[in-house]
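Quiz preparation item.
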């Protein structure tokens, strides 16, 4: 009797386990914005990793959730020649949690490969920083380099370091065994901020910034004087510093490995089956 009760209790768990997978991702991350104008490039890219879980609603539709670490950064040294004299730079770690819906164009449990697409919602945390002339790491958000939060510039609101994004992308999967699928994918993040790189609008008055945030804020807001032959004079109030009409993006590209839990039961030829393990 105890064995019968145990099977009855475990049967739903065993039937559901065939739909669960562990996902691992490794690749590179990059960003597109005021310091990196290319939409997609390997230039100035960094490592990115993620891990998460996947549940197959059907052989073609899945729900995923992942925790992702990425690092992004760029420098005007490698920017367009017209922007190199500005001499700005930034880096930031990004920590993200997302929930995604994924669609496979073919049944990967029956086919060797399948293209796929996905989209969803994510929460991410970032904190841009740069290194000063003494190689000290300086976080840029508290400096209000474009007057964010200063009463003299009421339209410049402080930007939050934790925000929402819309992740989307696609790739192609290859089934290498009953329980293991590998994929190459590219995923983009639609952001609602232009301050991932701490550059967006116009220079503010240097004296106002100095009085409000100190000399380090002025130093990090304009760095043209550090370039050989550059202009050391801080730009006048209202001089263009960034491009406020275009939001920043970041993206990841690399290899994903999906490992099925209980792969021996991961056979969708028994769709709708209620078969449970036989009693010994």
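Solution:
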């Amino acid at each position: 009797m105890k064995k019968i009760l145990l099977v009855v209790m475990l049967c739903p768990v065993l039937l559901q386990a065939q739909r669960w997978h562990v996902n691992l991702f490794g690749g590179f991350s990059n960003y597109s914005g005021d310091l990196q104008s290319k939409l997609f490039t390997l230039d100035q890219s960094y490592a990115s990793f993620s891990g998460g879980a996947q549940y197959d609603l059907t052989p073609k539709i899945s729900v995923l959730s992942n925790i992702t670490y990425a690092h992004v950064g760029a420098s005007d040294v490698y920017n367009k020649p017209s922007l190199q004299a500005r001499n700005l730079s930034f880096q930031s770690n990004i920590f993200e949690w997302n929930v995604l819906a994924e669609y496979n164009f073919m049944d990967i449990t029956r086919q060797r490969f399948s293209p796929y697409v996905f989209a969803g919602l994510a929460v991410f945390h970032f904190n841009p920083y740069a290194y000063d002339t003494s190689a000290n790491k300086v976080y840029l958000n508290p400096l209000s380099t474009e007057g964010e939060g200063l009463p003299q510039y009421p339209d410049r609101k402080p930007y939050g370091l934790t925000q929402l994004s819309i992740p989307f992308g696609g790739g192609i999967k290859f089934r290498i065994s009953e329980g293991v699928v590998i994929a190459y994918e590219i995923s983009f993040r639609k952001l609602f901020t232009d301050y991932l790189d701490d550059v967006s609008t116009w220079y503010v008055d240097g004296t106002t910034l100095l009085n409000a945030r100190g000399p380090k804020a002025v130093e990090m807001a304009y760095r043209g004087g550090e370039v050989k032959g550059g202009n050391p004079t801080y730009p006048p109030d209202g001089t263009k510093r960034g491009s406020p009409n275009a939001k920043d993006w970041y993206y990841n590209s690399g290899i994903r490995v999906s490992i099925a839990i209980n792969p021996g039961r991961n056979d969708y030829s028994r769709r709708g089956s209620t078969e449970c393990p036989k009693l010994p």
